[in-house]
Amino acid sequence: MDFNPYGGTAARVAAALVNAAPAPAADLVAIMRGEGMRITHLTGSQARGVAAWAQRLRPVFEETDLHRRVELVNTLLADSACRPYISRHDGYPPHIHYSGHHDDQLRRVEAYTAGGLAHLVCDDAGRMGRCSREGCPVVYVDTSRNGRRRFCSTRCATRVHVAEHRERQRV
Length: 171
Fold this sequence. Notes:
mainly alpha
């Protein structure tokens, strides 16, 4: 499924941060850049802030009730976002920024991920979740064609399906 830049890239950044934090600043930057976010550095203090923010993002992925999920995202937006504006910088085409031009990297990460989750909830709230394998804490954004993802990986899905198969064989 093809989302707009915030619903796609930003939501994937949110999931990646939830799955990675806490981590050293350089690792968090590499993770965010790997998901397409244009961020160049974080201080140690900002990395700790990103880890705390990731803890606040996790409940959005774990919540299954749409109304509660909307409330969670609205709280994140209120706590992070400035007034949206269209930016044209560094030769990029016009795009929306949710954080102010002079905001620090932490504020930008907060606004970017909150905005991405807001777009995803509005586009298709069922395309995010936590792995269905008991005990697996990994969250994901479902970009599959059919939108029916339940597991973080093939490995987790296989473990569950093999256990279910073995249970059926015992009966």
